Give the backbone structure.
Amino acid sequence: MSAKPSATALLAKRPRLLIVGCGDIGLRVLRLLRGRWRIAALSSNPQRVDELRAAGATPLLGDLDRPETLARLAGWADAVLHLAPPQAEGDEDRRSLALLRALARKSPPRRLVYASTTGVYGDCGGARFDETRPVAPTTARARRRVDAERRLRWFGAAFGCSVTILRVPGIYAADRPGGHPRERLAAGKPVLRREDDVYTNHIHAEDLARACVLALSRGRPQRAVHVCDDSELLMGDYFDLAADLCGLPRPPRVGRAEAAALMTPLQLSFLSESRRLANSRLKTELRLRLRYPQPALGLLA
């Protein structure tokens, strides 16, 4: 009668996942995968070591802005979940380039999932569309994401790695830092009047984390997927809904000229893009059943 395998041997057989950019969404993924994967989390902050270890990950100290610190990443992971944003300036994502160079040094991963943004499409005039629409970024922030997507797709083709790009809109959750409209509503910040308003898209943080997990096993090679809920709300209607659910006054409505005097350039950039995203790939390819298909459910969670 053969001896039972030791706990160490069982652990060694688990697939190995590297999470890059293990913030709120990464921690949610850790909770979903704990015990099923061997997980390492890259962080540039030594003060996060205990938090990451308590969440079930092996902390790896390294900085995407300092490529020389990334040598330990080569050859370790079967899969990579890339959640780190680009640096704050330029049209290229130097952080993704540094990561891919480190991964390419030895035994590249078989799978890589990247959380991009729906901002890669630019302004679509409120049109409804799927992932076949060409990208047309209008800000440097979005151009860096397009650069990252291009580099990742090249890496996948060159190294036989299945790359799935998750294009993610506004993320919300009551327990996510800055992820609920309450503070903005309580401060009385305005929204656009209906005739000037734009369509926005949303996803609850828990549904995004679940999509990340499913993409690690079901994502198709070199494929983009919209990770959004089923809503099609104008931005002002979203904040009106949140106000009603929270028992707060609805935000004041202003025209674009007044908004330009009241809002930051970053806030105004979000008011210049209007789109409605189709999410059929999310449901048919990743087979995600949304827990919060409408913000009316997620805002109360």
